[in-house]
Design goal:
One of its GO terms (biological process) is cell wall organization. It contains 18 helices and 40 strands. It is of the alpha+beta class. It folds into two domains: 239 residues, Beta-galactosidase, Chain A, domain 5 (Distorted Sandwich), CATH 2.70.98; 413 residues, Glycosyltransferase (Alpha/alpha barrel). The strands form eleven sheets. A nine-stranded antiparallel β-sheet has the order 4-18-19-20-24-16-15-14-13. A seven-stranded antiparallel β-sheet has the order 7-8-9-12-17-23-22, with no helix packed on it. The chain has a five-stranded antiparallel β-sheet with strand order 10-11-39-38-37, with no helix packed on it. Helix 6 packs parallel to helix 9 and helix 9 packs parallel to helix 11. The longest helix is centred in the middle third of the chain and has 22 residues. The protein is elongated and about 95 Å long.
Length: 876
């Protein structure tokens, strides 16, 4: 008998977070299960060849398939206060005086060609600047994680496994997994798959506000006889796309079962170490049938399983140090028991196609993915990105992985050839399609390379688009008048707030005004004066003297608001949960955009003090292109799902979520423009690639045209998802149920990428559904401006007329928007393609008083200006 088997090895490895660009550090504190083939092991166990072919359950009744349904929003949500109404808005009575010297902006052209793989480290040290103190504690302790002192992914799909009481599921899509913790008298890994027919809609099933999937349906549970009360589950090797869940009988005991948890995995694989496999089902097993070996080495053995709900499942067993068929015995209807002292693999998968599609699983059984890496390249307006999985187990087998609809839409030809006929429904992302491949490559052929700071319109019926700074004279005069007024406001009062989110929004508003005055109006002297005020307001944050200063968290590894630390109750809801890593891309993206504008208008600013180091710190926190000593890779953006997740360190019954696609893409736009301003061509390329992926994923899952194929048809009338969770979609916001809130949070802030990510047909359908025929004027005043600005994507004339009216109501602007930018944006779209002298936007403005106040020179920046010895107390 040939000694062909799998060797299970638990090695103490020197690991890095595997991203193709390389990593800045090694991690030596991780226990990582590895499986390799071996052909020279002594056989210690021989199983009988007399295997009963078909075993039937003794139970004949079909139990109801019940799960848990939670319809309320979770605590620890994202934007929990109205983002349109910023605190601290004040104005000054005297207008700002122009500077004597006009600005000398830098180049807006790309600085060269990106690397073959654009995931390269940022230049410079990842150390935070000296103005940022370090804390070695955190309101949420790090627990259940075996990895050592390394950056931890706070916003990834598996976070429920190390948060709270480890009581909530995680979603790999198409499966959900959860630690059973005694449910059904099991302490192993529960596996659930939900069909579309099992979704719940409510409160009115015909016009639903939400739909969600039941959780904790125990289709199959992978466990071991050794796992009883007292079992512990720990995690290791936490990476961007994967983690290991390890099960031991009690704290301090050796692991008897490990489960790699990987996004898109086709099998749920349990690695057993000298323990007895026990599989159970809350749906109950109807039958268990042995079906022979599957691969050329004849070392993987297949069993067919039918559940009492009629679903077909497959179990594959790849033993170690044994010959013969590992026996699985059906006991009653709820339990399948394997051999004692078993070492090797047990893999479980749902087979939606029955016997005609079993061969796809046979071609992969014995192999499984343990982690993934992403690589990306950009050439001109075309970008590619590849997800490559590390294959473990039987190397001659191909991996079977599930791809989401936005992946399949953009597959390259080689990946298209790997598509199978297997499809399984996901909870909130449509149908997942199985591919037999160790990697998949997606192509984005319409990168937003022509998008810059200027208003931008997508080309009609073709790729690409055009930016425009040409507006007619009458519009330019009106924009100049609005800009003169808004640059005279008290920037410090509007930006030095106790919230990074609100502060960032206000700073970006003024950055847009200054840019407009320089590049569209041509009033460079007044723009220069406004820029001095803006730099002074920005310096508050570089110097860390805002009411709630930032700090570097050395526990989870990231930059957070100190508000929750100073709260007597460690209130994690302060500043929208920033201290718990909620919404970092929303918050910090506004600052990165502002810095990109400042650096473009005054290139010397980039070299002064710690300005660039401070901004790069924010970039590393939410969008690090690699893992280094201080930050994980890509905290916010999920390169598998194609968008970011806003929820941080909060246990959630429905998984991660996001409620603002527009702020997600704006954070990416900020990266793109910061890369352009600083000459980092790889950052700009990553930004362009991510924006293209976001545009695709948003229009597949969040922004619902009438022909959307991924979300349930009865839900499409809502037009946007509202909050999209991993397990639920709810047409609400965390801060209110007004329709202008729910739709508008996916519009705000209107920026050059809005026309790229928001399809015109979708904008038309949404407008007609909610805001046409004068309904827009009944919206909350603070949201009326963004609704009219969004209208410019399809009707720039009506949009322009709204902002150009002589008695314009500034209360219709949200605190992160300006009349100046809205006038410039709408006039530029209205005048797109026209000669500068053509006057299509006709308006006038009243005379302005001549008294003015000179801007004070911006104070120096950096640590040598202010070093807080302790974080001051601020209002919450």
């Amino acid at each position: 008998m040939a000694k062909v088997s799998l060797l299970l090895v638990i090695n103490q490895l020197s690991l890095v977070y595997s991203h193709p660009a390389g990593n800045s550090r090694q991690q030596s504190d991780v226990q990582h299960p590895e499986i390799t083939l071996s052909t020279d092991l002594e056989v210690t166990t021989s199983y009988s060849t007399a295997i009963q072919t078909l075993q039937s359950a003794t139970e004949t009744s079909r139990p109801p398939a019940q799960g848990t349904i939670i319809t309320v929003l979770p605590t620890g949500g994202g934007i929990t206060k109205d983002p349109a109404h910023l605190p601290g808005v004040t104005k000054t009575s005297a207008l700002l005086c122009p500077e004597e010297t006009p600005l000398r902006p830098g180049s807006t052209s790309p600085a060269g060609q990106p690397a073959d793989n654009v995931f390269v480290p940022l230049p410079g040290s990842p150390e935070p600047p000296p103005s940022i103190p370090t804390r070695y504690d955190h309101p949420i302790p790090k627990q259940y994680i075996a990895d050592g002192d390394v950056p931890v992914q706070t916003n990834k799909f598996y976070a429920n496994f190390f948060l709270g009481g480890q009581n909530q599921p995680v979603w790999t899509h198409p499966y959900s997994l959860y630690w059973t913790k005694g449910r059904g008298n099991s302490y192993g890994m529960g596996i659930s798959h939900i069909e579309r027919s099992q979704l719940s809609f409510g409160p009115d099933a015909n016009k639903p506000q939400y739909f969600l999937a039941p959780t904790f349906l125990q289709h199959v549970v992978l466990s071991a006889a050794e796992l009883r009360e007292g079992t512990v589950m720990t995690l290791d090797s936490l990476k961007a796309f994967s983690a290991y869940a390890n099960f031991a009988p009690h704290a301090g005991a050796a692991n008897v079962m490990s489960v790699p948890v990987v996004q898109g995995m086709g099998f749920v694989t349990a690695i057993y170490n000298n323990s007895q496999p026990v599989l159970s089902s809350g749906v109950f097993f109807r039958s268990l049938k042995y079906a022979g070996t599957t691969n050329d080495a004849a070392i993987t053995f297949k069993y067919n399983v039918q559940l009492e709900d009629g679903s077909q499942w497959l179990i594959y067993v790849t033993p170690l140090r044994s010959v013969g068929v590992p026996p699985l015995t059906l006991q009653g209807g709820g339990t399948i028991v394997g051999p004692e002292a078993f070492s090797g693999l047990v893999q479980v998968t749902k087979n939606p196609g029955g016997s005609p599609t079993e061969h796809y699983f046979d071609d992969s059984a014995g192999a499984f993915a343990t982690e993934a890496v992403v690589a990306g390249s950009v050439s001109g307006s075309t970008g590619k990105y590849t997800l490559s999985w590390k294959k473990t187990g039987v190397q001659s087998q191909s991996l079977l992985m599930y791809a989401l609809p936005h992946h399949v839409e953009s597959f390259d030809q080689a990946t298209k050839n790997a598509i199978t006929s297997l499809q399984l429904s996901t909870t909130t992302k449509g149908m997942a399609v199985a591919v037999l491949a160790d990697s998949v490559t997606m192509v984005e052929a319409d990168l937003p390379t022509t998008i810059g700071f200027t208003p931008w319109a997508k080309a009609q019926d073709s790729h690409g688009g055009t930016g425009n700074v040409n507006v007619p004279p009458s519009a330019k005069d009106l924009i100049n008048a609005a800009g003169t007024t808004e640059l005279s406001e008290d920037m410090i009062a509007q930006t030095k707030l106790n919230s990074m989110y609100y502060s960032g929004k206000a700073l970006s508003k003024y950055a847009g005004v200054v840019y407009t005055m320089q590049s569209i109006v041509g009033n460079s002297n007044l723009a220069a004066a406004g820029l001095e005020k803006l730099k002074d307001a920005f310096n508050v944050f570089v110097n860390n003297t805002q009411p709630e200063p930032l700090l570097y968290d050395n526990v989870w590894k990231g930059v957070v608001s100190g508000a929750s630390y100073r709260s007597p109750t460690h209130d994690l809801g302060l500043d929208f949960g920033n201290a718990a890593y909620n919404d970092h891309h929303f918050h910090y993206g506004y600052f990165v955009y502002t810095a990109a504008v400042i650096g473009y208008l005054d290139p010397a600013w980039l070299q002064q003090g710690t300005n660039k180091q401070w901004v790069d710190m924010l970039v590393r926190d939410y969008a690090n292109p690699v893992t280094d000593d201080h930050y994980p890779f890509s905290r916010s953006f999920d390169w598998f799902h194609g968008h970011s997740w806003a929820k941080g360190l909060f246990e959630s019954a429905d998984g991660k979520d996001q409620e603002s696609t527009s702020e997600d893409s704006f954070a990416t736009f900020a990266l793109k423009m910061w890369g352009r301003t600083t000459g980092d061509v790889n950052m700009e390329a990553r930004g362009n690639l991510a924006l293209a992926i976001q545009a695709r994923s948003f229009n597949n899952y969040f922004l619902l045209k009438s022909d959307n194929k991924n979300q349930p048809p009865q839900f499409l009338f809502n037009k946007v998802t509202g909050i999209l969770f991993e397990n639920k979609v709810d047409h609400v916001t965390y801060f209110g149920n007004n329709i202008e809130y729910i739709e508008g949070i996916h519009m705000i802030p209107l920026n050059p990428t809005s026309a790229y990510t928001r399809d015109k047909q979708f904008v038309t359908e949404e407008w007609n559904a909610y805001f046409s025929d004068g309904r827009v004027d009944k919206a909350d005043p603070g949201w009326r401006g963004i609704l009219y600005a969004n209208l410019a994507l399809i009707d720039p004339q009506t949009s322009y007329n709204h902002f150009a009216q002589p008695d314009f109501d500034y209360h219709s602007l949200d605190g992160g928007a300006s009349r100046t930018w809205y006038l410039a944006y709408t006039a530029a779209l209205l005048n797109m393609g026209a000669a500068q002298s053509e006057d299509r936007a006709v308006a006038s403005y009243p005379a302005q008083p001549q008294e003015c106040t000179a801007a004070q020179p911006a104070s120096p920046t950096g640590y040598d200006t202010v070093l807080p010895s302790e974080l001051p107390t601020g209002a919450s």
